[in-house]
Design goal:
Keywords: TPR repeat. By secondary structure, the protein is mainly alpha-helical. It contains 39 helices and no strands. It has a domain of 247 residues: Serine Threonine Protein Phosphatase 5, Tetratricopeptide repeat.
């Protein structure tokens, strides 16, 4: 049995057989370190289900001796030392947790294990583990002086070793620094030699922790030394974190009450008022106060301390949330005059627009931490997405881009120049998300080159799918197909249909077809396009219940390929196009795109019966939430037009009346008047004189408003009007309309015919002659 066989036994869970095999193998190969190591690990894993005490006995009797035996055989390899320390210190911790403390490291044998830790420290790439083990050994032994020395050495090492990795440096230093603070707080003799408050004050800006209790522990230490300014600084870091955590909420409420007592005694720095208002707004139920208490409190503070940023900010925030935007703007402006803060500014921008429709044109230079800038970009992004007017969206997006740009630059300074206080949640992934949102905003502005660059930058800092999508989209939009091809290859190297969002993956496959079509063999890629399109159609037939969220991505992939194939068939003879789309429509009757194209082909052929049918099927097959207003309005126009041309006047008139208001809102005036002209003709034919006259009046008002000259469209409307008037016996008004048409030299000859055949009643007709 060789090593591979033994390893297979281990990974299949046959530990006893693996151990037996290793023992027999080592009889003939006593120096095989790989098998020795495998035997040690297997013995540990076999004991583990029997409890931590059983592990302790196995480590002492078998595992540690085996690992020790490896050291002379591979003196430069840290594996044995690492695993000895990892096993024994981990087991000690587990036993302590279940109140069965037993020691592997004792005063008698500590030199061996400290030596192993120092051996790891001596090799730079293993030093992080070495310091961790050394610190844990001294903690286990209670050697406080040695522990303090090891902690200081570790902090100094991390500061240099991780100098180009801000996140990792902050986290490693913070863990070690906090151990130092706990040690000094516990050991008063050591604390006498150190100024614990100075250490906290100096280290706080770089401290990060996912354990809220550590911040409150620091605040308690500050309180014990009567340094409430420092306690406040600590707590203001807490409020930037997870406010859903019960421990955090309880701690903040507790300190709110403490500060209330201190304020009554004269403690009132500006930041404490901000803290009080923030907690009152966030947790009124825990404080047992009214929800608007913080607003009333803010107004009171403004009266007493009129230069307090927080009071103006929170007064404005209350009014903003209540919808009193005009008043909110006034308070926000006062707050910003005291302190330029991005959240205040963003709420002011929204309030000002909602109050009077005006927008800021510039963005101040903020000093907020990068994550806060990014978050307010996200908030402004959400606000602009609710805007319908394109000019407003564009103006808001300009502001949004400037906020994201500031966030991007702040992140760069944070990670590359070590600027700003440390922020647990503002990590490199957050920077990458900022890059993604900025790339999306640039793309929306048509600034594709910068979008490509910032998306590429984002992928240097974190790996997540959205950045790939943004990069590929921007590259394709800028016709930079080589960059798009490279980006797509990178994406497909990392993701497949199982690891990626399936429908996003389809979109990327569609993008690859487009890119390869531009760069390679067009005929081959067209065949690939057809294969992919039919695979997409088949998927929908097999999975008709796709969620609305996924359907957008599914539709995007489909539209990408459909557009490519449309462009290929666009210039082919109508018969070829008709056959192509009719074959697809027959095989995939639930698809909208074939019907959309057939509708246009039939319109070219003036086969209006088929136009009507195809247009209706398109409307039925297209998901309502995906069809944009313009496409819907144009399709409705084709249906109404075809109803008229095949003589289905009542059906056409009914549809026209149902959708007239929608179409008017969806189309430009130049297009809407054509729709309106068919409405006039349909109502004329269906005998609705009153409705027709109303439409004619509306038609005329648009022409007058736009200052348009008489043309064939208006001529058709007036002839339809005249005909309806004639048919209803109103010959005088009919001839008035005819005379207007005849006043133009290039009038339709049918007007002459009407003039000659529509006779006015003669004098004798009144007597019945």
């Amino acid at each position: 049995m060789n090593y591979d066989d033994l390893e297979q036994l281990f990974y299949s869970g046959e530990l006893a057989a693996c151990i037996d095999g290793c023992v027999h193998y080592l009889i003939d190969h006593p120096g095989d370190v790989e098998v020795i190591f495998l035997l040690a690990v297997a013995k540990h894993d076999l004991a583990y289900p029997n409890g931590h005490e059983a592990v302790y006995e196995t480590l002492q009797a078998e595992v540690i001796p085996l690992l020790r035996s490896m050291i002379p055989l591979e003196p430069e390899n840290p594996r044995a030392r690492f695993n000895i320390l990892n096993y024994i210190l981990g087991n000690e911790y587990d036993l302590f947790q279940i109140a069965r403390p037993k020691k592997h490291v004792t005063a008698e044998n500590k030199d061996e294990f400290i030596g192993y830790a120092k051996d790891l420290i001596a090799v730079k790439e293993h030093a992080v583990y070495g310091y961790d083990f050394l610190i844990r050994i001294h903690e286990s032994l209670g050697d406080d002086e040695e522990l303090l020395l090891a902690l200081d050495q570790a902090i100094a090492f991390f500061d240099v070793f991780f100098k180009h990795e801000r996140d990792i440096k902050d986290r490693n230093i913070s863990i070690t620094w906090m151990k130092k603070i706990y040690l000094l707080d516990r050991n008063k003799d050591l604390a006498m030699e150190s100024n614990i408050l100075e250490i906290i004050e100096t280290g706080l800006p770089r401290f990060v922790s996912g354990h809220a209790g550590q911040y409150f522990d620091l605040a308690e230490i500050a309180q014990e030394h009567n340094n409430f300014d420092l306690a406040l600084k600590i707590l203001l870091k807490v409020v930037r974190g997870d406010d859903e955590n019960d421990q955090i909420q309880e701690g903040l409420v507790k300190w709110h009450q403490r500060f209330s007592d201190l304020i009554d005694k004269g403690f009132h720095p500006t930041d404490v008022l901000y803290f009080q208002l923030l907690v009152e707004r966030a947790y009124p139920e825990r404080l047992q106060i009214a929800e608007d208490y913080y607003y009333q409190h803010a107004l009171e503070i403004i009266q007493r301390y009129p230069n307090t940023y927080g009071a103006f900010h929170f007064a404005g925030t209350y009014l903003y949330e209540q919808g009193d935007f005009d008043q909110a703007v006034s308070y926000f402006r006062n707050a910003l005059a005291i302190q330029q803060q991005v959240t205040t500014w963003r709420r002011m921008v929204e309030s000002r627009f909602l109050a009077n429709g005006t927008l800021e044109e510039q963005v101040p230079q903020f000093k907020d931490i990068p994550r806060d800038l990014y978050n307010e970009g996200v908030n402004l992004d959400a606000f602009l997405k609710n805007m319908e007017e394109s000019a407003v969206k564009e103006a808001l997006r300009n502001l949004d881009v400037m906020i994201y740009q500031q966030s991007f630059e702040a992140f760069r300074k944070y990670f590359e120049e070590d600027k700003y206080e440390s922020d647990l949640f503002g990590d490199e992934h957050c920077w990458a998300m900022c890059c993604n949102n900025l790339a999306i905003a640039y793309t929306a502005q048509g600034n594709y080159h910068d979008a490509v660059e910032v998306a590429q930058e984002g992928l240097k800092h974190a790996e997540f799918q959205e950045l790939h999508y943004s990069l590929v989209e921007a590259a394709i939009e800028s016709n930079d197909y080589l960059t798009a091809q490279e980006a797509l290859q990178t994406y497909f190297d990392q993701y497949n249909q199982e690891t990626a969002s399936y429908y996003k993956y389809l979109q990327m496959q569609a993008n690859l077809v487009i890119v390869n079509h531009q760069l390679g063999d067009e005929e081959t890629e067209l065949n690939h396009a057809k294969d992919l399109l039919f695979a997409i159609y088949d998927h929908y037939q097999e999975n008709p219940d796709i969620s609305d969220y996924d359907f957008r991505d599914f539709e995007a992939a489909k539209n990408t390929i459909e557009t490519l194939l449309y462009q290929e068939y666009e210039h082919k003879p109508a018969a070829v196009r008709q056959q192509y789309y009719e074959e697809i429509a027959a095989k995939y009757p639930d698809e909208a795109n074939p019907q959309y194209n057939l509708m246009q082909i039939y319109n070219e052929q003036e086969d209006y019966q088929q136009v009507n049918r195809a247009a209706r099927l398109y409307m039925e097959n297209k998901q309502a939430f995906l069809i944009n207003d313009f496409d819907k309005a144009k399709t409705l126009y084709m249906i109404v037009k075809s109803h008229f041309l095949i003589g289905q006047y009542r059906e056409g008139a009914a549809l026209f009346s149902e959708y007239d208001s929608f179409v008017e809102q969806s189309l430009e005036s130049t297009e809407y008047v054509i729709w309106l002209s068919y409405g006039v003709k349909l109502l004329s034919k269906s005998g609705d004189l009153e409705g027709m006259e109303s439409l004619v009046s509306h038609f005329q008002s648009i022409y007058n408003q736009e200052n348009w000259s008489y043309d064939s469209d208006s001529e058709g409307v007036y002839l339809a009007q005249a005909t309806a008037l004639y048919q209803h016996g109103n010959l005088k008004e009919a001839h008035k309309v005819l005379d207007y048409v005849l006043s133009f030299d290039d009038h339709d000859k049918i007007a002459d015919h009407y003039k000659q055949t529509w006779k006015k009643p003669g004098f004798l007709s009144k007597f019945g002659f």
